[in-house]
Amino acid sequence: xxxxxIGLIGLGTIGTGVAKTLLENHALIEDRLGFSLSLKSIADxxxxxxxxxxxxxxxxxxxxxxxxxxxxxxxxxxLIGGIEPARTFIKNALxxxxxxxxxxxxxxxxxxxxxxxxxxxxxxDLYYEAAVGGGIPIIKTLREAFVxxxxxxxxxxxxGTCNFILTDMSESGATFHEALLKxxxxxxxxxxxxxxxEGIDAAHKLxxxxxxxxxxxxxxxxxxxxxxxxxxxxDVQYAQELGYKIKLLALTIDRGDRVEARVxxxxxxxxxxxxxxxxxFNAFYVKGDIVDSTLFYGRGxxxxxxxxxxxxxxxxxxxxxxxxxxxxxxxxxxxKDLSRPKTYMPxxxxxxxxxxxxxxxxxxxxxAKISGILGRRDISIVSVIQKxxxxxxxxxxxIMMTHEAKESNVKSAIKDIxxxxxxxxxxxxxxxxxxxxxxxx
Length: 441
Hints:
single chain; alpha/beta; Rossmann fold; Dihydrodipicolinate Reductase, domain 2; Alpha-Beta Plaits; 18 strands; about 25% strand; elongated
């Protein structure tokens, strides 16, 4: 039977899952494809660690270039992460006539244009389903299943670590730091969780999703990023009282000749489906002009869900090899560069609703001063709630929900409010996605 031979670079968590799947589910995959996928070699810097799977003798090597230069290997899988040496490995593999599969979202978000151009130059496929959404097939969906659709917007919960932390804060009343410690103890957060909790991981994924949806090149400079490390348990609780959950939301929205791409904490109404996505799960809410609203939900990370996505790419590329074709599906969803490409909208230009918490002195005239500042910046208030006296007997939390306002106006108003002698500390501002508040003035 015909065999497609595979070289795997990186035997960490995901690499182990891929090796386990290819070795243990070999017969099932062969029955479905009608030909054999053969894992020939695995390269990793650590050859001694026990991964909990039986790897055939002679398959392991510390020399990744051996796989890249092996004329019998058809597909290289890159699962080491980071920019270098992953970028060099992928470029050399493509140059040497190998098709490549990667889960490296950071690399594709920053160097994707260069690598996709190399794939076209050498007539090879570069697939990356596992880079976004773990086991959720969002790349395949956007590139293939929804090919007839203009995307109105795509909203996503794209980072399981942040979603777990915010869920725990909401359900148990834990502070951010307490919830982060629990996430580390359960293995949901890295020792250094910065990429997750500061929104960078989600932004890498959103950069790729935005490219697929709107034909813009992946550009991290075009994606606004704000993490959750500053979220106070008070705001989680006040949001709940108002009927909202706080989620780290990734949004990409069609704005005509521009596109919004932003990642930040967001208040979402309880009755929204995305508000019900809790724990380490991820989800994508996709609105297309033909298909209408769709929701994709599942595990966005982890050994086996991500391995499932990698093996799906292996199967697709192997079918292409067998048919003698490459580039059948454009890497970023569009066959050629658009003649009138969209540009990224600066965060200062967006229009949305806002939750604002101000710690103000409880005396006559203070609210009028605050309202006056907002009014001069064209910010209209939907509702105001003054909470009971807190520990500070001289100041009370004042919570405001606004109509749609321009980001630059809100930032300017907040600076002015923070300067008031009657206000203690910087006001808290969190964006809101609630269609009931849109254009209701």
